[in-house]
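Good morning N.,

You mentioned wanting to compare the apo and holo forms, so I went ahead and generated the holo version with nicotinamide-adenine-dinucleotide. This is what I fed in:
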Amino acid sequence: MTMTGVDTVTQWPMYIGGISRISERVSPVTDPGTGMVVATVPAASQEDAQKALAFAAQGAEVAANMPTHQRMQILNQTADLIKARRESFAMLIATESSKTIREARKEVDRCVDTIRLSAEEARRQQGEVIKFDQAPGSENRVGYWQSGPVGIVLAITPFNDPLNLVAHKVGPAIATGNAIIVKPSGLTPLSALKLAETLYEAGLPGPVLSVVTGSAQDFGDILVQDPRVRMVSFTGGLKTGKHIAHQAGLKKISMELGSNSPVIVLNDANLEAAARACVSGAFWAAGQNCLGVQRIFCEESIYDEMKKRVVQLTAAIRMGDKMDESTDMGPLITEREAARIENWVDEAKSQGAHVLVGGERKGGSYYSPTILEDVPPGLIVLEEEVFGPVASMIPVKDLDSAIQQANNVNYGLQAGVFTQDISKAFYAIKKLQVGGVMINDSSDYRIDAMPFGGVKGSGLGREGVHFAAEAMTEQKVVCFNL
Ligand code: NAD
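and this is what came out, ligand included:
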């Protein structure tokens, strides 16, 4: 079987403790654009999961004893190798996921940055002197605290950024001296496997990293529940996140979940910039983006003008072949997802919503970029995460009304606000219940070094290399009684 534009592949192995394993039971990887199976990976069993745990227990010792310069060297070399192989990583992402080749290249560039930041983070794993003599009776004590690895980190990742979201867990875990088991999305496991190969090539000892492929239903709970795993770092949907949090028991958890992000456009905003940012933010990766713009609140006096611009820009989006350099938007990840989006839009229409542009299933996994208006409050396309190419425009009386509606959902990842008025910007920053507020940009802005995460149903804890690294460590206090 040949993968479009990438290596000739029949069967990819998974890596348990650095050793490649194949299996009689396999799981197909499908190109969502063509619907063709492009590769298979092993469908791991419970026994495979147990082996990965046993290797990780050894790997935790190895990783903790790796000197900082070695961790940095491995991560820097990995970044160099990914950079040198940018195009083949991008082709792989654009084949197994629904991203276009141009979107895939951006993800590879960000992954290089994430791994490079992780290398730098390794040297920042320090501690500080504690002034014990502040407590009466402790005058003769000296000491400090130092940070150390938690031991084994379990990384569970989604399909929509199949490379960089794995790097956001693996990079900080290696920087902090942890062993790591990756359970990538069953839909897009190949980028994670290629990243693992690159890390081993750069010198990462095998037991430090395992990548277990297949269906989480078969072995997910075994990994999540195991007491040797000291942290579960999860990125994915709210429903899965809740299940994992219940299974995990007494261990660290980080949850990077979804949202239905708002953008607020006030009447003094630069409307051209606002429209461009909203459209780009709504349809990046066909809307399968945790930061994707889903609800666009516009003050009434500029609503019609914004609507005109948003519709025009949306209508100009070229949807099609992911490998074509001129394509702006690819398909949904599966036909099932396209059917779900179709149902949600149809339901909104039946309740009185109007389709301003799009609203059509285009065959297979394709759904056209869609803007809705007049969506009655409480409908699923406003309340839940659409995770597809559908955004709604909502006129509002003023900033307070926009903030009230923006906050009135169970999510809060990031928000965008367009205004030239600094006091209104600060007012919105104070009132919006989210993990990040972007002034004069959409919710869809992120660099890999910033703290990233949400409130309410959008998650627990923060990623962003430094913040993920901090979460993957424990502080140990040392005190000398002189
Ligand atoms: P998902 O929740 O369906 O799956 C995520 C991962 O969890 C997959 O690897 C899956 O196999 C695994 N999983 C499922 N059940 C499990 C179990 N019982 N035990 C262990 N692992 C299990 O999510 P998805 O559809 O792949 O991704 C889309 C979601 O991810 C969206 O909600 C999106 O907003 C969210 N997301 C969040 C961020 C963020 O940083 N906040 C980034 C990207 C995506």
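The domain at 6-257+459-481 is CATH 3.40.605.10 (Aldehyde Dehydrogenase; Chain A, domain 1).

Happy to go through it together on a call whenever suits you.

Best,
F.
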